[in-house]
Automatic annotation (TrEMBL):
UniProt entry tagged with the keyword Secreted: no
GO MF annotation, one: monodehydroascorbate reductase (NADH) activity
Key words of the record: FAD, Flavoprotein, NAD, NADP, Oxidoreductase, Redox-active center
Cofactor: FAD
Catalysed reaction, written as an equation: 2 monodehydro-L-ascorbate radical + NADH + H(+) = 2 L-ascorbate + NAD(+)
Ranges where the Monodehydroascorbate reductase 3-like C-terminal domain occurs: 358-445
Pfam families, per the entry: MDHAR3-like_C, Pyr_redox_2
Gene Ontology CC annotations of this record: cytoplasm
Protein name from the UniProt record: monodehydroascorbate reductase (NADH)
Enzyme Commission number(s) from the entry: 1.6.5.4
Coiled coil regions in record: none
Amino acid sequence: MASGKHFKYIVLGGGVSGGYAAREFAKQGVQPGELAIISKEAVAPYERPALSKAYLFPQSPARLPGFHVCVGSGGERLLPEWYSEKGIELILSTEIVKADLPSKTLTSAAGATFTYEILLIATGSSVIKLSDFGTQGADSNNILYLREIDDADNLYAAIQAKKGGKAVVVGGGYIGLELSAVLKMNDLDVTMVFPEPWCMPRLFTAEIAAFYESYYTNKGVKILKGTIAVGFDADANGDVCTAPKSEFSSAVLIAVKLKDGSVLEADIVVVGVGGRPLTTLFKGQVAEEKGGIKTDAFFETSVPGVYAVGDVATFPMKIYNDERRVEHVDHSRKSAEQAVKAIKGKEAGSAVEEYDYLPYFYSRSFDLSWQFYGDNVGDAILFGDADPGSAKPKFGSYWVKDGKCVGAFLEGGSPDENAAIAKLARAQLPAASPDELKAAGLQFASKI
Ligand code: FDA
Ligand code: NAD
């Protein structure tokens, strides 16, 4: 048992933030043996967004080492060798089960201890499970979730085993939309089920959602709105509750019971009903805010020398004078870089600018690709060609609050057009009237 290892810096979590933190440490300068990344996963940090997209493609699916960080932002791919060359210790397949901040000690499930001078918490999120709500039969092994690469491998295996079968996707958010598309691309008969009146309600307006729902329907995805799965049963052919995760016997069908009384049959059930930031190790030891670990504009927590980045951090969102948590990859990259700059800046006695983040979210599914920048508050004004039947639909939405354009969404934009909406959302320019905005469409952003 390896125990009692000491590092100057420990990054807890080897996901997106962990990888980008390692790169920034290397850029700023670390001595061999000073930095360790500890991760529950068995692989070096990778670009998590690939898991719900190219990883599951029917042809030439993406596989490691193809999508290790930092390819997702156009940077160098950090292979495991990169960490050894830099003298950064990658401690993989190691779950930390106890964190004692006063003694600066982390303890793994195997009983190993790690001490540090500076800690960067980058534990990300875990999935919310239907069993958390007490949904009957929800702990069956054939009910799948997607967070880590092992989950993606299970899902890939299920897709291969169930070609031509039926999939029920529970949830109408990011995971629901991205997985429904990729399951359909794999020739499964896909039904999406979610409680809200339209998909992705935390970002989409009813008009935006109408486009995606029609597009998906045209692709053959069935969408059941306004209901939830209240229970799961295996049919007489098999007890799904005792089947090992990797075994997807073709005989097993799951009955998905919906709140409205109807029952769907499924070979695969995939659930995406939200994430929960992994902060439990630090409960009672650091200040929390809005469900995350509260940080300053340099991602330092209430405990000096302890930083939190990525999904777990609730940080000052300077542009909106608000404290927020963001569960998206762009922020996980940038917050990690900011924290490392701040750590190294403090050591060198040099000033680092406050984090001034403009929210940026994106998604891709089928042939579609959208980007969003800013804040989706106020009145939304749709513009462009939102006809799902168009050969190349291109449309967007501006959000106007207090006379200013505070957010912008664009489906099908070019890199220049996406850059233009980002600039607009950052500048928060005075908005024209709704009619003028609608008529000007993308021109409004492009002329800045
Ligand atoms: P992240 O989850 O990446 O990493 C956390 C790491 O910490 C994991 O490796 C975990 O195992 C490890 N860990 C946790 N607890 C531990 C412990 N106790 N001991 C040891 N290790 C521990 N965003 C976006 O903007 N566009 C997109 O297209 C997508 N797509 C997407 C797809 C899928 C399938 C998911 C799940 C998520 C996305 N996201 C996304 C969201 C984005 O990936 C997410 O916001 C970042 O990965 C967050 O980065 P973090 O480093 O904070 O957590
Ligand atoms: P989400 O918050 O985007 O969506 C959750 C959805 O679950 C809700 O919209 C709702 O439709 C549904 N829901 C809630 N309770 C339900 C119930 N009882 N039954 C059925 N549906 C229910 O969360 P997610 O899609 O699970 O994504 C998980 C995490 O991964 C989030 O942090 C998300 O930001 C991240 N992610 C991001 C991207 C991206 O940015 N492109 C892609 C994939 C995942």
